[in-house]
Design brief:
The complex is a heterodimer of chains A (382) and B (233). Helix content of chain A is 32%, strand content 26%. Chain A is α/β, with parallel strands linked by helices and 382 residues long. Classes of the chains: A alpha/beta (382), B alpha/beta (233).
Chain lengths: 382, 233
Amino acid sequence: MNIRTLEFKNKSDGWEIQKMSFQQLNLLVGASGVGKTQILQAIHTLKRIAKGESFSGIQWKLEFTTNDGGEYIWEGEFEDNKFPLEYYNRDENRPSSRILNEKIEKDKTIIAERNPEGITFKSAPTIKLPSEKSLINMLKEEELIESIYEHFKRIVLPDEIFDYNVQARFGITPIKIVLEGKIESIGSIQELDTFTEGKLYITYHIFNDVFQTIKQRFCEIFPEIEDIKIDRIKDNELNTPREFQDKVFIHIKHHNVEQWIPSMNMSSGMFRTFLLLSEIYLCADNSVILIDEFENSLGINCIRDITDEILSTDRNIQFIITSHHPYIINNVEFQYWKLLTRNGGTIKAQDITEKLSEKSRYERFMQLIQLEEYQTGLEEVL
Amino acid sequence: MNIFFLVEGEQTETKVYPKWLTYLLPMFTRVYSAPYATKNNYYLISGKGYERLLGTVLDKTIEELIQTNNFDYLVICVDADNRTVEETKNIIQTIIKEIPLQLPSRTELKIIVQNKCIETWFLGNRQIWKRNPQSKQLRDYIEFYNIYELNPEDMERINDSHTVSDFHYRYLKEILQERGISYTKKSPNHVTEKHYLDELINRQEETNHLQSFKTFIDFCQTVQQQMQTTDQD
């Protein structure tokens, strides 16, 4: 999917994002605490709502397109049970909130609508459906909605990639390659609804040429690395703890070093770089990749290369990135920037090109740090 | 007419000068990128410290001025710190001469040396003065140097545990604190007010102290006069 605009309100926590627009590449910049992460979380929350989760006090409106060229608007509102968003990630017995109203439009025509009187789909009333789950989730079997549902799966948040993949450092459970018949091209792997390391495993075994491309790119960033493989820990089979025995690991091999190093012993920057690179090559077409604090745990050598990789990829991926790093900021043109400010609970994105010019001879980062809004996070009052 | 300000300070100057300019040169509007300057605009950039200003930033600034070729003044505002005003000016002039690029002929260079630093100027306000302050620290400072009577620009440091500029900052902070006013480099709000600026101008005119502050006020008056002449033309 390609997100065009977002409006988001969290009534339970008392904050909102004023309508902001997005392009293919988006660099969110702003003072700490201004709401960069909240924007990524808001988008990710919408993915979870599409998948059927319920969140107290959330109101939203999202305009997006899909690869069939359809222009969609999805809006809705949950009742406010004063249950903070943060708790949803921790509390498994969380309460459900009802959706008060919801609407899905395609090319300016209403496909599905919910209001206190009931739900209509293609203008006809539906049977009674649970009020805590979104229409996208409940009607996903319908042809008109299926594609929307599938597109929401393509929103990828780094917390998902990285937190989950921290586990990958401790081994990947091999996915049985029963999918063989279905895997006809690398595109089929990209479309798989599984995490990156699972895709990597299949790519390694079935499309080794693609794996070699990722490997080659990785070795360019880290010239000291000679080879990468995905394999069991074989060398010390007898000494391998039981929980690792049925798992495979990403392994790297340094030049002039005989032993392979499994992922749990790799540096976190190196590991993160490898997974991010793999994500760029293996995510589904039309994915939306959300990267918070891009530079975290990446050394200067990786930051430059990964930034260049993102800027030069010819894949159809929408990137929404937050960063404070001069290299990233200097290399992304002003037209892709969103300067965020906060006024109380309201987060607002500014088009920076009204203020800063590409014609200036100063580096972009130098220009940015001059702005009062960037230093304070508040809108300029002068 | 357009003016390009390059200031040393990272936080204070970028707040004080824009506010003071609204009183002193109200016909000028700020732009946030030099190429956007058209008519009666000023652009202000911080060099983020003395070393950076004189290093890469000054080079880039001259490039920027050549590229835009739309500025009548380049005003460089730096602290003297432990140098004299003349030494500081000489350093900047020498560095500019060494840069292979030349300032455009339409752009006049004006160097404002804050002697010792911008807080030294703020110390000139006699209205904030208290004869018998509560703070022991402040009483010590006053005993060391009475800025009500003597020129703040001539004050050195009380001891060598701080730089002279740090000491002037501490003195100002203490004196404002005594009045219940909080002053930090990040939030110099009180000193940006018009009544505060007016007091500094009064002090300068009545005592002839704050000569380096006067160079800034004189510059603004020159610009005012030039604007009037242009209007008459």
